[in-house]
Amino acid sequence: MMLDETNRPSRRAVLGAGIVTAASMTAGVARAAESAAPPADDGQEQPPVTRAIIDGQGEGWRDLTGDDFTKVNSADDTWTWDGNAVHCTGHPVSVTRTKQIVTNFELVCQWRHLKTAGNSGIFVWTTEESIKKLTDAGKPGLPHGIEVQVLDLGYTEAYEKQYKKPADWFTCHGDVFPVGTKMKPFPPVAPNGSRSFPSKNLSRGVNQWNHYYVRAINGEVRLWVNGEEVSGGTDINPRSGYLCLESEGSPVEFRGLRIRELP
To answer: Mind listing the pLDDT tens digit for each residue in 118-176?
Structure first.
């Protein structure tokens, strides 16, 4: 299903606002682009670049390392950091959060699952109240916020085998959805109306690295998977909070975590 462009501004906006454009793909800003038509000599406008990888380099970008995160309800050995890369055991079901609250920002990272049917995620604008509850309880659980799903392709088969029914309420390609908060999802939308389903299936399977670019600004979250914008939502409330990485039962790795905070 095509995206509803009436709800989604053109991608030909300034990169400072977090949108990839042909004009903005300079060295140190974007490192790969595909689907651009060759120059024509007939003077007609050429199709826009439809694919680009934001590499998190350039003014304002910085690494996110273990020094930027703190324990919430994970075990002491759940997260192991090496610079801007981290290994997660998957146990217990929990999160680690940034020490500082963030509002408008861009985030890049790569991730890979190390086991078939692995489950994880990135929480955006996680609420202080839910973090406090998890911290005080010290028990497994997940917070409230906007989840950017990080799911292995094998999860669909595992779900259908276990529950004996179609896995039609989620995908493994970058769902974006609210957990205990409010969001109007971009189409295509899950059958229950809560999730933004990806417009394309671009995620790679177990042991393969995937690239995410997340833009969260002014109550709107957009996700690019392996170079293409696929999902997101708007009218989000709250639109400020912690950034969290999720441990949910299976080993997963993140690397190249970099952030640029915006006005």
So the answer is: 999 999 999 999 999 999 999 999 999 999 999 999 999 999 999 999 999 999 999 99
Contact 254, 134 (CB under 8 A): no
**How far apart (Å, rounded) are the C-alpha atoms in residues 56 and 259?**
7
Note the pTM of the prediction, 2 decimals. 0.83
- Output the DSSP codes for the chain: ----TTTS--S-S-GGGT---TTT--TTTEEEEE-PPPP-SS-PPPPPP-EEEE-S-STT-EE--GGGEEESSS-TTSEEEETTEEEE---SSEEEEESS-B-SEEEEEEEEESSTT-EEEEEEEE-HHHHHHHHHHTSS---SEEEEEEE-TTHHHHHHHHHSS---S--SS--EEEESSEEEEPSSB-TTS--B--SS-----TT--EEEEEEEETTEEEEEETTEEEEEEEEEES--BEEEEEE-SS-EEEEEEEEEE--
Backbone angles phi, psi at 87, to 5 degrees: -105, 135
Q: For the chain, give the percent of residues with pLDDT over 70.
A: 81
User: How is 74-105 classified by DSSP, letter by letter?
Assistant: S-TTSEEEETTEEEE---SSEEEEESS-B-SE
Band of the pLDDT at 51, cuts 50, 70, 90? confident
Confirm if 257 and 85 have CB atoms less than 8 A apart.
Answer: yes
Written out in words, the top-level CATH class of the domain with range 62-261 is mainly beta
| DSSP state letters, 103-124 | -SEEEEEEEEESSTT-EEEEEE
Q: How far is residue 134's CA from residue 136's CA, in Å, rounded to a whole number?
A: 6
